[in-house]
Design brief:
Number of strands: 12
Helix content: 40-55%
Strand content: 5-15%
Structural class: alpha+beta
Number of helices: 17
Largest sheet: 4 strands, antiparallel
Order of helices and strands: HEEEEEEHEEHHHHHHHHHHHEEHHEEHH
């Protein structure tokens, strides 16, 4: 016999001459019950299957009536209510405070309305005590319960039960702000730097460093919010670009002899002074303070360079290329290294969380080096980006595999109850989760029943008559196509009959809009923002 790698459920196996004990019989019952609960929990799901509607008690303002119905709680236990149950909500509130110590407020006090959540919970009660017939050495001689009665109890909660996790929640975990989005933003920035660097190197390989033209007076006026009112300020981003052009032009003028760039015009002193003044204004502006930290730091270094006018003659062609793109010398490498290493740490952490420290990808990502911004680190960044994308895809793909159900609460939500004083003033029955059973789907989407009625007319009604087709062929009254078409038509007519005619629908929409207006006005009055006329 092959040895099993693992074991799941164990069921008893009876044979002739076997001495049966209570353990054997109990094992058979436990096996059947556990199998049923497993199917309920993992295949059918938790929630209300049918019924269990909650209505205010017409004879008692502090009570509600729960109709018969059936539910499955998250552990797979069946909850069956066979007869209507009258529930005293005020007693449940007091029981809630005594049971848990949760102070939801005394509903009979003079206070605003209080919301509670009514739930039904699975409960077992041992019943039918029987004395042992022939006590053995282990028996005490006292009565033992011979039955387990499966029942239920009602409770109130201050908070609604947690919603079951769905694929939307799982996908959201793949893109939380602290992980995927921030890493993606860092990768976008660094990959952009790689692209800019390649463009700069390609330009230099072609021996064609572009001349940065200094702005003229008209361009300085164009960045003004109102040229007729200089005190109104400037458009911040446009002004920063103009300052950057002046700094880049200064760097070229200081580094490249005029003979090597015959088309370049020398910078006028008035342009430099005007740029200094503009940079000082930008450094003190609120628009700079509102920028993200990284961008604010980059812009501040550029503005400081424009104000302080350091010697830029030692800048190389690559550094001048970065400066022409709006990045100060050294900022590109500093930002590239910082963000690349941050993403590398995050990717390694994710691989560690997934138990992949022994994988080839983990070793490959660990070996990447980003201490410099050069050809090697640029290529390694692409390797890191591909690893990041694979992890993102793996998380997304894994989200499509439903996880096994977990159970932390053996109760099923039924309704939200509003209590004012000692009176139940409102009941919302849809504060619950449904089990998507075939019967429920047939109720919500009655296509099958409509088709059944049509088939009944076709198969059990009078003899089908033959009708001519437009093409001259003879067709029976009911064909597969006509059945499907008529089913859809009948459904549309039923829905239209429920929703009403077009005039009624327009009247309902108009009424809802008017109610919204009145509600907003009453809210303002309650807040003291508006005085009634």
């Amino acid at each position: 016999m092959t040895e099993l790698a693992g074991t799941g459920f164990v069921r008893p196996k009876f044979f002739g001459g076997m001495l049966l004990t209570e353990d054997d019989l109990q094992a058979a019952i436990d096996y059947t019950v556990a199998k049923r609960k497993l199917t309920n929990r993992e295949v059918i799901g938790a929630g209300v299957v049918c019924g269990l509607t909650v209505k205010p008690d017409p004879c008692d303002t502090r009570s509600v009536i729960v109709s018969p119905g059936y539910a499955i709680e998250c552990c797979g236990n069946d909850i069956l209510v066979s007869c209507p149950e009258t529930i005293d909500i005020i007693d449940l509130v007091r029981e809630l405070r005594q049971r848990t110590g949760v102070d939801c407020g005394e509903p009979c006090d003079d206070q605003p309305r209080q919301d509670y959540h009514l739930v039904i919970c699975y409960a077992e009660t041992p019943t039918a005590p029987v004395a042992p017939y022939a006590p053995d050495d282990c028996a005490t001689g006292e009565c033992e319960f011979s039955r387990i009665s499966e029942g239920y109890r009602f409770e109130l909660r201050c908070e609604a039960p947690d919603d079951p996790e769905t694929i939307i929640d799982a996908l959201g975990k793949c893109r939380t702000p602290d992980t995927m989005k921030r890493q993606a933003d860092d990768l976008i920035t660094t990959v952009g730097f790689v692209g800019h660097r390649e463009a700069i190197l390609q330009t230099l390989r072609e021996d064609a460093e572009p001349i940065v033209a200094a702005p003229n007076a008209a361009e300085f006026r164009k960045i003004q919010v109102d040229p007729a009112k200089p005190e109104a300020g400037v458009h911040f981003d446009q002004a920063v670009k103009l300052v950057n052009r002046v700094v880049a032009a200064r760097a070229q003028e200081a580094s490249i002899p005029a003979a090597e760039q015959p088309g370049r015009r020398p910078l006028a002193r008035v342009t430099i002074e005007r740029t200094q003044k503009l940079a000082e204004e930008l450094r003190a502006s609120d628009a700079l303070k509102a920028k993200p930290a990284d961008e604010r730091e980059r812009i501040t270094r550029l503005l400081n360079t424009a104000v302080e006018q350091p010697d830029l003659s030692e800048l190389g062609p690559v550094e001048r290329g970065w400066l022409a793109l709006g990045t100060m010398p050294g900022d590109a490498e500093r930002t590239f290294v910082t963000k690349a290493e941050s993403v590398q740490r995050a990717v390694l952490a994710q691989l560690t969380d997934q138990g992949q420290t022994g994988s080839q990808e983990f070793r490959q990502v660990s070996a990447l080096q980003f201490n410099r911004f050069n050809d090697r680190s640029s290529n390694e960044l692409l390797t890191l980006a591909r690893a990041f994308m694979r992890l993102a895809d793996a998380c997304t793909c894994a989200a499509f595999n439903p996880p096994c159900a977990t159970c932390t609460d053996e109760c099923v939500a039924l309704a939200k109850i509003k209590v004012d004083g000692c009176d139940v003033v409102d009941v919302c029955e849809l504060d619950r989760h449904w089990v998507l059973s075939p019967r429920a789907l047939g109720y919500w989407i009655p296509v099958v029943d409509e088709l059944r009625q049509l088939l009944e007319r076709m198969c059990c009604g009078p003899r089908r008559k033959v009708i001519p087709d437009e093409g001259g062929e003879q067709l029976h009254e009911y064909t597969p196509v006509s059945l499907v078409r008529e089913t859809g038509t009948r459904l549309a007519q039923r829905v239209e009959g429920v929703s009403g005619d077009e005039q009624t629908l327009r009247a309902m929409v108009d009424l809802q809009q008017r109610l919204d207006v009145v509600t907003r006005r009453l809210d303002k009055l309650a807040e003291g923002k508006e005085v009634p006329a």
